[in-house]
Specification:
alpha/beta; Arc Repressor Mutant, subunit A; Chloramphenicol Acetyltransferase; 5 domains; 7-stranded mixed β-sheet; 5-stranded mixed β-sheet; about 35% helix; elongated; CAT-like_dom_sf
């Protein structure tokens, strides 16, 4: 498209307009610039030009249309306000103390300044430019008129602090500047210009000039500063060496304002707005970047800045690439910035704000708010190379520049449909600005050193400014401090530089392959933020303990504390000596059934003390156990038996009937009888190796066939060692989890390995929150492992009048994403001694990462991180090419180290697909597991879980993560629990919210919807709100999404 671009530019220079009407390309040559050669080129390019016309929806702006001459102002009529001025006037009236609309220029000056000459210079500039002497008083019914003053001088604040103590001078100067800059602006009384001159020393000064955007824009500010300094030179030189003063502009801003008012009423504006509607159609209203903090409904709008430079060598290479691509450094930098956003998680179709000036020749030298911001719709789909994106950007900017006269406010008001929140700017939240060199006139005897504003405000999420200065590019990342930390901005800068360097090396490289990681960041990801070994108890820290298995840990506790209670259920108590004897005896019996490392033992037993005795016995026999939950469908249980082909099934009287159709040997036992029988003092003489399987735990398969995860002793020993090192000594632990949920292993053996007592619980108490609360109190439970849904139900059931659970010290949440709800905050505020631990790990790894929440519960984040890898675990966030994703960038989470399962029992192909060679380790045989979870490292090295990769849904063309909607809805103080799910509907995929709340009125639904609308874009608001008395749960206590009702049930839906 470069030839087409050159042709359009040639037509624009000669005043030729190309228009597509009714599918026919028409050529308009009012100035006679069309010669035979150009006419032939247009004819040859006619098909391409017609296609380009279709891209811009057939509107007659394929080339820049020369603006008509600006007519003289109507006599006797007060000048109108332009659209930009009306916007800033509204801000000034509503927020008079807001400093953001002021454009500052600040300098440290060395030399001898004459304040009187500077004051004269400012007065002269005011006399040349009416816009700087204009006030906007309010008249009747809220209307505002313009009033051009003739008898005013600029507010010129002169301060002398050179005699202040040197140690206080900098602070005093900052305070003076802050007070001056933040002075309220009253548009009905004040003029929009102010100046500050501070004397810091005998030859040291600070000079600042600020103009309100109602009267100025950045290019005008540079013009204003040039004129001030030129006037200063004129007055300072005197008659002896006279310096000519600046010439007044040919017209005043009022004339331009009259012209723009007429243009805004023309058909041309309506056609241009149609162009923007077409261009922006289907683009996401919000660029969703990974942030350090969640977006607030009431942002502070405080901004930070990170400055960096592109070296002269990089600048030269960038300019050379621009020449090769037939474009400019602006396009190259904008391309790199858009790729940076894409690689940080933005969608391939994104809108970036850019700034453009649109003044005519006769308006040159005129100060005013001419600059306009445009929403540039960029399309980076298809993984093109860098050079291809440059061409796309160049052509898009060319097309959009043809419509740059439309004020952004009119584009916004025409297109904005409420699909962003009050905390996100409409149409674009990310901005790119490029400034050409702006030299200042030399002032005899003075040296000016530009200063930057330290504290600013912003309505944007992120902006990149690039300035061409003194042979290098000076860059600034401006960021919202509501969303980003300073370290993240620094990383944006480093990655932007690396992207540019890589693109210059190979502009034909696909953009997904351009490297963004520097060596320091790579070291953090591969080493600094991986697991750090923690101090172990002395008996686990010896060289001999390296081969310890969980069975050895239990044996050690039994030898040291034989009479301590190991298991308790009501009046039934097994001490460690009795636990050993019973498990030894059962292990010997299992060997009689040929149980071994290749022949597992299936357990289908009722919850109780004998169930955990059986688990220990199977491990002592050297066989893996296969937990079969009696509540599962019989067909599923039989399928699991067929896949594992166990040596024997252990059942009891109440579960035997579930497995009668199986041809596997079944040993039906009476738990009460088994607990009373004679034990065996010695365990079987069986060798248990690190790689031997300890259990086979079944999870759901995507094809409907369950997968048997085979977990080795080494991984589980590693987990229990970690748990003992970080947890309570001799804890009273509730055995809450079902045996078919891997957390049960953690409950059992981390308790026994630490000489604690395992407290059993029956199903009725386990499933009723009020009964569970009372049981935790009466049994003096110290440690509790539960899924989030159970903890939330428990917290909701806990009344303010209830006595706290006095002994509770540790609550471990696993199995589901943890949300810090108002109920959880209240619960842990009543239990200040209890620690909340968030653990993460799929069945294929058990626990991989954990985070202990610190501080007051009311400051805990709504979606806490999943923390850092446990000892001997490794966690990588990788892109689609299995390359490390930069810090903060989402990718798929892969886990490695000692925590991995062997694979899937009897399914080598599936194992090979999910367990891959570890590309980042030198250890032979190292593997990583592909979790299918979306995650990212935050700025502090903690992993943040972002949901399942396959849980992202497309709503009205926008990518939505239901976990985010669920988390925001769950913050509502009236909602006890909630779930959000994507549902197919005739009009497309829509979201359904399932809510548990004590309030059941139409007003409450409006309250929930309003809560979301204040925090999320329109397309993320659920279409249905379904009331439930409780959320359905699986036998393991997790949310059962498959059991959520159809939202089309009118009896349930609001």
């Amino acid at each position: 498209m470069s030839e087409l671009h050159a042709l359009l530019e040639q037509c624009a220079q000669r005043g030729i307009t190309l228009t597509l009407r009714n599918g026919r390309l028409e050529v308009d040559d009012p100035q006679g610039g069309l010669d035979e050669t150009l006419d032939s080129s247009i004819e040859q390019a006619r098909p391409s030009l017609s296609r380009l016309g279709q891209i811009v929806a057939g509107y007659p702006y394929l080339s820049k249309t020369p603006l008509p001459a600006i007519p003289d102002s109507p006599h006797g009529e007060l000048p109108p306000l332009t659209r930009q001025q009306r916007e800033f006037l509204t801000i000034a009236k509503q927020q008079p103390n807001r400093s953001e609309p002021f454009i500052p220029c600040m300098f440290r000056v060395r030399g001898d300044i004459n304040p009187q000459h500077l004051r004269q210079a400012l007065n002269s500039v005011l006399q040349h430019h009416e816009i700087l002497r204009t006030r906007y008083p309010m008249v009747t019914r809220g209307r505002t008129r313009t009033e051009i003053r003739t008898d005013c001088a600029p507010p010129f604040h002169l301060v002398d602090i050179r005699h202040s103590p040197a140690s206080l001078r900098n602070r005093e100067s900052r305070d003076e500047f802050r007070s001056w800059f933040r002075t309220a602006y009253d548009p009905g009384y004040d003029i929009p210009l102010r100046a500050l001159l501070m004397r810091m020393g005998d030859r040291e000064w600070f000079f600042a000039l600020a103009a309100h955007r109602i009267a100025c824009d950045p290019p005008s500010m540079h013009l204003l500063l040039n004129e001030v300094l030129t006037w200063y030179n004129h007055f300072h030189a005197g008659k002896k060496d006279s310096v000519p003063p600046p010439q007044p502009p040919p017209i005043q801003f009022a004339t331009y304002a009259f012209w723009q008012r007429g243009w805004e009423r023309s058909a041309e504006l309506r056609e241009a707005l149609d162009f923007w509607r077409h261009q922006l159609d289907g683009f996401p209203p919000v660029i969703k970047l990974p942030t350090d903090r969640p977006r607030s409904a009431e942002p502070t709008r405080q901004a930070g800045r990170h400055r960096f430079r592109l070296t002269p060598e990089l600048r030269a290479g960038l300019r050379a690439l621009a020449d090769t691509c037939g474009t400019t450094p602006f396009h190259i930098c904008l391309t790199a910035f858009s790729i940076l956003l894409l690689r940080h998680g933005a969608e391939p179709r994104m809108v970036i704000g850019i700034e453009t000036g649109h003044m005519q020749h006769q308006a040159e030298g005129l100060i005013g708010p001419f600059c306009n911001r445009l929403p540039l719709p960029l399309d980076l789909r298809g993984d093109p190379c860098f050079a291809q994106i440059v061409s796309r950007v160049r052509d898009l900017v060319t097309i959009c520049a043809m419509h740059a006269r439309v004020p952004f406010a009119q584009i916004r008001d025409s297109l904005h449909d409420g699909s962003t929140t009050e905390s996100a700017a409409p149409l674009y939240q990310v901005f790119f600005g490029f400034e050409a060199p702006q030299p200042l006139p030399k002032v005899s005897g003075l040296t000016f050193i530009r200063e930057s504003l330290k504290t600013i405000s912003t309505s944007l999420d992120l902006a990149l400014w690039v300035s061409d200065e003194n042979g290098h590019y000076s860059c600034v990342f401006e960021y919202s401090r509501d969303l980003f930390e300073a370290v993240s901005a620094a990383r944006f800068a480093e990655r932007f530089t690396l992207l540019l360097e890589a693109a210059l090396d190979d502009p034909r490289m696909p953009i997904s392959r351009l490297p963004m990681l520097g060596l320091p960041e790579m070291r953090l990801l591969l080493h600094g933020w991986q697991a750090v070994p923690s101090p172990l108890p002395e008996w686990l820290a010896t060289p001999e303990a390296a081969g310890t298995r969980v069975t050895d840990m239990v044996a050690r506790t039994a030898a040291e504390r034989p009479h301590v209670a190991a298991v308790r259920e009501g009046k039934t108590v097994l001490n460690y000596a009795r636990l050993q004897e019973l498990s030894n005896a059962l292990a010997h019996r299992l060997l009689d059934f040929n149980a071994n490392r290749q022949r597992p033992v299936a357990l289908c037993l009722t919850r109780g003390p004998f169930q955990v005795v059986a688990v220990l016995a199977v491990l002592k026999a050297g066989a893996p156990y296969v937990p079969l939950d009696p509540t599962w469908p019989r067909k599923r249980l039989l399928a699991m038996l067929a896949m594992t082909r166990p040596a024997v099934i252990l059942t009891d009287i109440s579960t035997n009937a579930r497995l009668r159709a199986s041809d596997t040997i079944t040993l039906t036992l009476d738990p009460a009888h088994e607990l009373a029988r004679e034990g065996e003092p010695l365990p079987p003489e069986v060798s248990i190796f690190a790689g031997d399987a300890a259990y086979i735990m079944f999870t759901s398969g995507s094809t409907g066939t369950p997968k048997g995860v085979t977990m080795p002793h080494a991984a589980l020993t590693n987990l229990i060692r970690h748990q003992i090192a970080h947890s309570l000594s001799a804890p009273r632990t509730l055995q809450f989890a079902s045996l078919s949920f891997d957390v049960s292993f953690q409950e059992i053996f981390s308790t026994w390995g630490a000489s604690g007592t395992l407290i059993m619980i029956d199903e009725e108490t386990r499933n009723e929150p009020r009964l569970l609360l009372e049981y935790l109190r009466s049994e003096q439970i110290e440690r509790l492992f539960v899924p989030f849904t159970t903890l939330q139900n428990l917290a909701e059931s806990f009344r303010l009048t209830d006595p706290p659970i006095a002994d509770l010290r540790e609550v471990v949440v696993a199995g589901e994403a943890l949300h810090i709800t108002p109920a959880l905050v209240r619960f842990f505020e009543r239990h200040p001694a209890a620690r909340l631990i968030n653990q993460y790990g799929p069945t294929e790894t058990h626990v991989a990462c954990e985070l202990s929440l610190k501080g007051s519960p009311n400051i805990w984040p709504v979606l806490p991180p999943i923390g850092t890898p446990i000892v001997d675990a490794r966690a990588y966030v990788l892109d689609e090419h299995l390359q490390l994703a930069p810090i903060g960038v989402p990718g798929e989470l892969y886990l490695g180290g000692e925590i991995l399962a062997r694979g899937y029992w009897g399914r080598p192909r599936l194992t090979a697909a999910q367990f891959l060679p570890d590309p980042f380790t030198r250890l032979p045989g190292g593997r990583i597991y592909r979790t299918g979870d979306l995650a990212r490292f935050d700025a502090r090295g903690r992993l943040r879980y972002l949901g399942r990769i396959d849980s992202q849904v497309n709503i009205k063309g926008y990518r939505v993560e239901v976990d985010e909607v669920e988390a925001v809805l769950g913050e509502h103080p009236e909602i006890a629990a909630c779930a959000v799910m994507a549902v197919k509907a005739p009009e497309g995929t829509r979201l359904a919210a399932y809510v548990v709340s004590p309030r059941r009125t139409p007003e409450s639904v409006r309250s929930w919807r309003g809560w979301l609308e204040a925090r999320l874009p329109e397309f993320m608001i659920p279409h249905w709100f379904v009331r439930l008395s409780a959320l359905p749960r699986t036998p393991t206590g997790k949310l059962d999404r498959s059991a959520l009702p159809n939202p089309n049930n009118k009896d349930l839906v609001d």
